[in-house]
């Protein structure tokens, strides 16, 4: 059955199936880490039918290969299932360079959330030095990296997150301001205080009332990057955005995107991210849950904001 | 007093003041036509204070000039007031070429509404051959021209207007489809029928529920041009847009603009529009009210959709 609202552990069943040896052009993998992302909830209403293996991106080690492209022992980034030993077509795998970072770096600051932040800030947001930037879900998987990219690009950066603990982390990332949306009665006013000169670039991961409040503070020619809308994904009653008129008044642009469209340019992003990571200017705080059995709980945590950092399931413990 | 809601005739008072001879670098004009535009309502909540002369763009004839740039008898496009004989700084005037069109052409297909449509379709909408285009308020001042530009650019074009009479006019303009929003109970379904392949470019002049319905039919990579929002300008209760998630799903862009920003490029637009007008491929239906005394009524007509065609006040009758 397809879930309504926030996915619960009961939204999933676990199953043991025999490991399948790889066919030609396939690879048998040992899953190391699985990324837990808001988009997964959308998949449960769309591409993934009840009874199918839940899909998820992650990092795995090659155990057996019948592809000339991969050797046993190599580390790969892949579209995996929530499985310990998946057998996967080689075309779904991308070799990762362990000289650039270990498996945790490849699920974190070099991973797909980071690549998402890279293209969102640069290609969609046209980030430039001096921009006043606001990032929502700034302690989350994509938000953390988006905020740090803005900082690296010499922007003024404010972040929105839920709770003092996450906002403390934003201070450690040396953002110029952190807004705890759970502690504010008037979010629009709080954004106004944190971004007193207005916003040139709003990187939005949440949609709904936070997006609506941010619109009130756009500067002339502002860009709004629609990267995610976690506040709206698990509801049938979408919030009505009232402040779109600001796009007209401020000659502003709002644009949605999906990282998969940049597939041909992932290496460009990885090279940039790896260089900044090596310089110590790009970090990612991970919230790691141990064991594949935690995955069904993990997705719901994301929607309740119970995670502190990018949420990851460590499958090989 | 600033008006609430739709401007009424009582929102204005008329006054007789002596004609003022021009000072140095000023010109005394005889106003021929005044354009009546939705933006004027916004000015009444902002830049124009109660007691000031209502501002409006239009076409006038030079009577006396103390500027070396203008000679008596010349036709000018100008930021005018609702006045018969305004005295205006020469810098607010642009000379118009009567070889390209008469005064009515210059308020119509060569005028500022047409220039707005030009930059909106091309620079903001990135119109290209084969695009499926939808235009709202397609019988209005900007919408008519936007729809015709799309047709000239070899697009499939559907228009939305209120009432059978306006939709008949859209058929005369040879649009592929006309949607009478006043006759449809389910506007989203009506758009789906008229734009059965979806929408690559939505040129929006109205905002509110029509914008919300159009979002449901965007194609991958669609562009939404926010040119106006007449349904929302005269209300304190803005409509909440629920379908913004479509921008994400469809990797679509929504952008607001103001024609004044293109001031340096008006001549480019005029040359293009004049050439199409000369070829007979670009027309503008005007709704002409006679006498300056009609101006206070005119603005309200616009918000009730009582005009059929671009609304103009003929001052010199």
Provide keyphrases for this structure.
six-stranded parallel β-sheet; alpha/beta; Quinone Oxidoreductase, Chain A, domain 1; 11 helices; Rossmann fold; homodimer; 13 strands; globular; 24% strand; 317 residues; seven-stranded mixed β-sheet
Structure commentary:
2 copies of one chain form a homodimer. Chain A has 317 residues and is α/β, with parallel strands linked by helices. Chain A folds into 2 domains: 9-108 and 285-314, Medium-chain alcohol dehydrogenases, catalytic domain (Quinone Oxidoreductase, Chain A, domain 1); 113-259, NAD(P)-binding Rossmann-like Domain (Rossmann fold, 3-Layer(aba) Sandwich). Helices cover 30% and strands 24% of the residues of chain A. The first copy, chain A, contains 11 helices and 13 strands. In chain A, the strands form 2 sheets. In chain A, strands 1, 2, 3, 4, 5, 12 and 13 form a 7-stranded mixed sheet that branches. Chain A has a 6-stranded parallel sheet with strand order 8-7-6-9-10-11, with helices on both faces. The two termini of chain A are 31 Å apart. In chain A, 48% of the residues are buried.
Strand content range of chain A:
15-25%
Number of helices, where a helix is a run of at least 4 consecutive DSSP H or I residues of chain A: 11
Give the integer mean of the pLDDT values of chain A: 93
Strand and helix order of chain A: EHEEEEHHEHEHEHEHEHHEHEHE
- The assigned CATH architecture of the largest domain in chain A is 3-Layer(aba) Sandwich
Main interface: chain pair and counts: A-B, 29 and 29 residues
Class inferred from helices and paired strands of chain A: alpha/beta
User: Under the CATH scheme, which class of the largest domain in chain A?
Assistant: Alpha Beta
Oligomer: homodimer
Provide the helix percentage of chain A.
25-40%
Summed up, the domain count of chain A is: 2
- What is the CATH homology-level superfamily of the largest domain in chain A? NAD(P)-binding Rossmann-like Domain
Unreliable segments of chain A (pLDDT under 50, ≥5 consecutive)? none
- Computed Rg of chain A: 20 Å
Shape of chain A: globular
